[in-house]
Amino acid sequence: MAAKSAVEIIEGLNSDQLKTDLPVIEVGDTVNVHGRIVEGDKERIQIFQGIVISLSGRGVNRMIQVRRIVEDMGVERIFPLHSPRVAKWEVIRKADARRAKLYYLRDRVGKSRRLRDKRRGLGKAGVGGAAPAKG
User: Fold this and answer.
1) Residue 63 burial (10 A CB sphere; 0-12, 13-18, 19+)
2) Residue 49: its H or E element
3) Which of 3, 91, 103, 134 has its CA 20 to 30 A from that of 46?
4) Is 14:80 a contact under the CB 8 Å cutoff?
């Protein structure tokens, strides 16, 4: 019998920590992150809603960076995807993002901060040139 390598042993230990009930989360999605907050001997759930601006890492080290606007001030938090401190992930809205990182949203103000909804399609800017002629 062949001995297991160190990488196989570590991946075996990490596979026990992976959550299986996660939705498909992509860059540009608006998500609700239900985080567990411990205050003294009490625990409560606090929801952080924002746009996913980046994904990084893989496996148990997968991280998601979420940005929201609070009183005209941008707030970003980085959440480990498989953390026991995160009770639940909810995808509220899917948006069409053509980049892997949406850091340019930090400089945007007002309506230009919004991303196009995936359900509406790409319209005239889509693949294949112009939209079909009506007639």
Assistant:
1) middle
2) strand 42-56
3) 103
4) no
Cβ-based neighbours of 80, under 8 Å, separated by 6 or more:
61, 62, 63, 86
Q: What is the pTM of this model?
A: 0.77
Note whether 79 and 55 are within 8 A (CB).
no
Contact 48, 112 (CB under 8 A): no
Distance CA 135, CA 131 (A): 12
HSE, side-chain direction, 13 A CA sphere, residue 111: 0
Tokens for 86, please give them: 């995160």
Residue by residue, DSSP assigns 60-109 as GG-EEEEEEEETTEEEEEEEETT-TTEEEEEEEE-B---SS--GGGGG--
**Per-residue pLDDT for the chain (135 aa), expressed as one digit of tens each?**
567 888 888 888 888 788 888 899 999 999 999 999 999 999 999 999 999 999 999 888 999 999 999 998 999 999 999 999 999 999 999 999 899 999 999 998 888 888 888 877 655 544 444 555 554
